[in-house]
Amino acid sequence: MWLFSIILVLGLTCASSKEIPSDENEIETMTINLDFPRMPEMVSVTGYPVESHVVETQDGYRLTMHRIPHGRVSNDTKRPVVFLQHGLLCSSADWVVIGPERALAYQLVDRGYDVWMGNARGNTYSRDHVSLDPNFPAFWDFSWHEIGMKDLPAMLDYVLKTTGWDKLHYIGHSQGTTSLWVMLSLLPEYNNYFLSVSALAPVAYMSNCESPVFRSLALVGDSLSLLTSILGASEFLPSSELMQLGGYLTCMDHSPFQEVCTNIFFLIAGYDSQQLNRTQLPAIMANFPAGASTKQLIHYVQLINSKRFRQMDHGFLGNMLRYTSVVPPDYPLEKITAPIGLFYSVNDWLAAVKDVHHLRSRLSNVVKDYLVALPKFNHIDFQYAIDVKFWLYDELINFIDSRNL
After folding, report:
1. Which of 145, 169, 299, 379 is catalytic?
2. Which letter, b or e, does each residue of 221-239 get, where b requires 16 or more Cβ atoms within 10 Å of its Cβ?
């Protein structure tokens, strides 16, 4: 929280120190610039069609998915489906925010795919429940474990039923892979849903994580009660207009604090200044953070300290009640049989190469192992890098093409 608070304070300070506009036209221009578009608007202005679909999970969360069914020119061809799942604090917007020339969603649509983008419970587009209020802690009582056990099955079932296909392609980034490992290991029948699984910056084991942000939290310990007392027991980095405004103004071109903004990203993900398009930072920050529960972050911290990929540690009594065991059980990765493609990089401070190799040793059906050739390629470059199409997406899409029936 403290890192992003710095961004927010600096951004608002920058905003308050700006010269007051001298005429109505300038005021109107500023208002337009700070009117942050929702994800469907981001797509529709490019000329691509976009749809919103809502699905309800077994435990009552209402999730919004976004779909780009075809390119700018409509046709009746039944297209194979690709489902994209975002990472921690992100949303479906991250698959389109860098524009049609480079963003993965558009690249896939132009290649002939029907593209669906999920939104996990608690983010900007999935803050609804049949009875729980997101303003109260009960709404936020979940980790990425529940995303894997409840959200992904609900969304994937809906997509296949709606499109009429028996199988689809899955692409997950970071937490979008973690939650998938949960689902495929504990609900192994879902392994049959996939033509391919592409894991971008895959996260399961985290003992070699280099991010100072996560390492600092890990030093505090992995006690659930201790960390919730420090970070709070509900939403982590709440998404709001105030947060968006602070991030936007801090990261915009000519802001004296733009380098602070970029360094916050780098402290989390790894340094790669050359691949970060600073001009697009305001658009990225207008959609990030998109919301997540504190327990999602805490569960990751526990993985760092335990050096295992296992369910959340609720303490002695909590574990006995939930698992009838003093320690939480490991996820049975040996039950994953779907065809997996691993895409990772050397400079990723969250998904370290050693940890990805550890994950690979536990998976029985890795059909693609791709180390990005650019040495500086980091965790956020998988979605935002200037040359992401050349270094990653062309190879990724060729892999997906090769797995079609």
Report:
1. 379
2. ebbbeebeeebebbbbbbb
**Angle, helix 294-306 to helix 212-220, in steps of 10 degrees:** 80
Q: How confident is the model at residue 257 (pLDDT cuts 50, 70, 90)?
A: low
Report the relative pairing of strands 61-68 and 128-129 from DSSP bridges.
Answer: antiparallel
**369 CB-near residues (< 8 Å, 6+ apart):** 341, 342, 360
Contact 4, 237 (CB under 8 A): yes
User: Buried b vs exposed e over 70-81: b needs ≥16 C-beta within 10 Å?
Assistant: bbeeeeeeebbb
Q: How far apart are CA 368 and CA 388, in angstroms?
A: 18
**Residue spans of alpha helices (H) in 99-174:** 104-110, 144-146, 152-163
Q: What is the dihedral of CA 219, 209, 84, 92, to 10 degrees?
A: 50
340 three-class SS: strand
Rounded to two decimals, the pTM is 0.88
User: Quick check: 277 and 386 in contact, CB under 8 A?
Assistant: yes
The CA distances from residue 91 to 125, 166, 175, 183, in Å, are 8, 26, 11, 19
Q: Which residues contact 173 (CB under 8 A, 6 or more apart)?
A: 85, 86, 87, 90, 94, 200, 201, 382, 383
Pairing of strands 366-371, 235-236: unpaired
In 3-state terms, what secondary structure has residue 313? coil
Q: Is the peptide bond before 37 cis (omega within 30 degrees of 0)?
A: no
- Both tokens of 58, joined, read 């077994």
Instruction: Choose the catalytic residue: 91, 126, 174, 196.
Output: 174
Give the helix/strand (H/E) hosting 8.
helix 2-16
Please list the residues that pair with 368 across neighbouring strands: 341
Query: How high is the pLDDT of residue 324?
Result: 97
> How far apart, in Å, do the first and last CA atoms of the chain sit?
46
Type of residue found at 331: Y
Residue 334 above 60 pLDDT? yes
Catalytic (active site) residue 174: yes
For tokens 């961004």, what's the residue? 7
Average pLDDT along the chain: 87
What tens digit of pLDDT does each residue of 289-298 get? 899 999 999 9
